[in-house]
Amino acid sequence: MGKPVPTACIQWRTWVFTVFITATILLPTVIPSNTVIPSSEKRLIKQLINNYEKAGKIGRPVKNNKETVVVGLGLSLFQLLHLNEKNQILTINVWTKYTWIDQLLRWDPANYSNIREVRIPPRLIWTPDIVLYNYVDERMKEQRDVMLNVDYLGRVFWSPPAIFKSRCPIDIRNFPFDYQFCFLRFGSATQHSDQMDLQFLDNRTEVDTGEYTESNEWTIIAKPARRYLMPSKCGKTIPVLTFFLFLKRNPAYYTYILVFPCILLSLITTVIFWLPPHIPAKMLLSMNIFVSFFLLLKILAMSTPSASTIVPFLGYFYCLNMLLLSISTFLSTIIINLHTYSHKRGPVPPWMVKVVRLFSTPLSISRPEESDEPSEKLSSLQAKLKKARQLGGIGSPLGGPYSGYPMHPVNAMQTAEQQGSYPRFKQLVYNQGMPQDYRNKETMYQLDTYLREQAQNTQGMKWSQQSTPEMFLDQMQGRTPNKTQEQQSNDSDASDRKRQLWQQADKSRRATLQIHTSLSHLRDALKNLMEKISKKDALAKRARDWRLVVMTIDRLFFWFYLMVVIGAGCYLLIPRGQSHTVEEIIASHTELNREKNLQRASECILEKNEHYLV
Q: Strand 161-167 and strand 225-233: pairing?
């Protein structure tokens, strides 16, 4: 048999069992069924908040007033929303990261189920008053409320998302191939460096772009960060963290909208000079291109700051083309005026003739050809008549030179027969001097016989300009005013034969009398005509001279426009690199901050001196 169980042990077991049964029966009646027992985390958070309410939310979370709260700040860029060049505003979506130590938020994890960290709303505890200095947001609050992460050592980590709108000075000189430099300055609104020291989170001196979403318009080429001390009071400073963003524009969109049309319009402008200088359509085309450049300039103005003191090179190129088009239109007006009223102007000045001769050969300008106008055709006719007159009157109704004795039709007939042109002469006399009713084969034969007899009898006698149709009639009838009766009787045989001929061709003789008269009238008419032709030739020559001047001016301006546009296009439109390096810009920013500190220090010295004097 085993050993007997002690009585004391049995009593202890009985007591424990009784307590268990009693608790099982009575506990539901003591604690309501809807009561929730708080977890250790809730008890911990409640305890921390109660401690904070007792100590007070206002004021730095330190037990010793001489201690400095060190706040770490980091910036994680999530998205570059927009860079408004017109208003010079940069809009970005970021996560701001803060860390600091709150001495009022410490606990022993062993007392709270080994809980090492909790989440607390930021409105219940102290948070650093760090703000964006260069903000231009109409909203007074950029951040979104998120919970703070607190560990048992009092280390607080807070990462609220925010949309910041900061001022960004825009340099549009190289638009749309430009680089922009923006920065964000963070610092405490009220506390200087003795109370709160602002440092970079994890000593990371750049913007974190690990979660960055690429922008279609801008490319980030550098993102450094620097720490500066900004003077607040005499002897006091506020630490400031500045985050820089160096951006490069993607010019594809603006190239198709602003640059490519500009180049096409510049090429079309050269077509203007292919038109004749005196064509009014040239002015119309120039004004249409001028309006096109004006529209491009308007689009450019809408994309750039209105109050900027810098004009983009593209705008200079637009204005240059508009200026050249205005000059071209002005010159076209002068050219049309010279071409239209050249006959009313005097001859081309000698100095202008020299200039035209100087540039006509290098510019491949030839003298304008003679047109096919009737006046110029008459000029060629005048040359032919002059040549015929030099051949002895054949083909010229004047019958020879203007000075001296003009040739009688009989003498002209002899000369024509000698030169083999008698048939043409006879036809001329027959057509111009014979009435239409008497033009037949019989009268033509009689005229031929008569002219040949007169050529044999007169033997080339010259007639003066005082010869009259009556003298010619007497010659045909076989008498002259100076012959005596005796001489007429000796020539009776010839007179009978002539009289018989006269009777047969009475009508043709009268028609022959009109030959000399018609030729005389024709001579006077041709003389007047030649004078008019000479005047028209002089005016035409003067017009051609002025036309040559006009062509030279137009061609000179064409080469001037071409060289200026090509040179300006290469200088203004070719993309440039960054004007200053990142290090140079940061150094310039640092130097500017140092100058401000020196200025503030000098102001403090003046204030102290004034206070000492008082």
A: unpaired
Look at residue 246 and tell me whether its pLDDT is greater than 90.
yes
CA 209 to CA 93: how far, in whole Å? 12
The reply to whether omega before 176 is within 30° of 0 (cis) is yes
- What digits encode the pLDDT tens for the residues 192-228? 888 899 999 999 999 999 999 999 899 999 999 999 9
CB atoms within 10 A of CB 97: 18
Measured at the alpha carbon of residue 226, what is the angle toward residues 223 and 231, in degrees to the nearest 5?
A: 145
411 in helix, strand or coil?
helix
Contact of 52 with 104, CB cutoff 8 Å: yes
How would DSSP label each residue in 234-273?
TTEEEEEEEEEEEEEE-THHHIIIIIHHHHHHHHHHHHHT
Sorting pLDDT into bands at 50, 70 and 90, what band is 358?
confident
CA–chain centroid gap for 267, Å, is: 11
By DSSP bridging, strand 69-84 and strand 179-188 are: unpaired
Instruction: Classify 218 as helix, strand or coil.
Output: strand
Q: How many helices (H) and strands (E) does the chain have?
A: 16, 12
Q: Which CATH number fits the domain 47-251, given the four candidates 3.90.25.10, 2.60.40.790, 3.40.630.10, 2.70.170.10?
A: 2.70.170.10
State which H helix or E strand residue 159 sits in.
none
8 A C-beta contact, residue 182 and residue 83? yes
Cα angle for residues 296, 220, 90 (degrees, 5° grid): 65
Answer whether 471's CB lies under 8 Å from 480's CB. Answer: yes
The overall pTM is greater than 0.85: no
Per-residue pLDDT band at 16 (split at 50, 70, 90)? low
Residue written as token pair 């004078």: 531
Domain ranges (residues) in the chain = 47-251, 255-365+547-572, 374-480+495-540
CATH topology match: 47-251 vs 255-365+547-572: no
Worst-scoring range by mean pLDDT, 42-56, 161-175, 519-533, 586-600? 519-533
For 177-181, 258-262, 376-380, which range has the lowest pLDDT when averaged over its residues?
376-380
Q: How confident is the model at residue 368 (pLDDT cuts 50, 70, 90)?
A: low
Where residue 481 falls among pLDDT bands split at 50, 70, 90? Answer: very low
Q: What is the mean pLDDT of residues 441-456?
A: 56
CATH code of the domain occupying 255-365+547-572:
1.20.58
HSE-up of residue 133 (Cα within 13 Å, Cβ side) = 15
- Higher per-residue pLDDT: 157 or 137: 157
In whole angstroms, give the CA distance from residue 516 to residue 468: 9
| 382-408 average pLDDT score | 46
User: CB of 467 within 8 A of CB of 412?
Assistant: no
Which stretches does DSSP call E strand in 54-127?
69-84, 89-101, 117-120
List, as one string, the DSSP characters of 310-376: ---HHHHHHHHHHHHHHHHHHHHHHHHHHHHSGGGS-PPPHHHHHHHHHHHTTTTPPPPPPP--HHH
60: closest CA among 261, 197, 232?
197
Cβ–Cβ under 8 Å, residues 110 and 237:
no
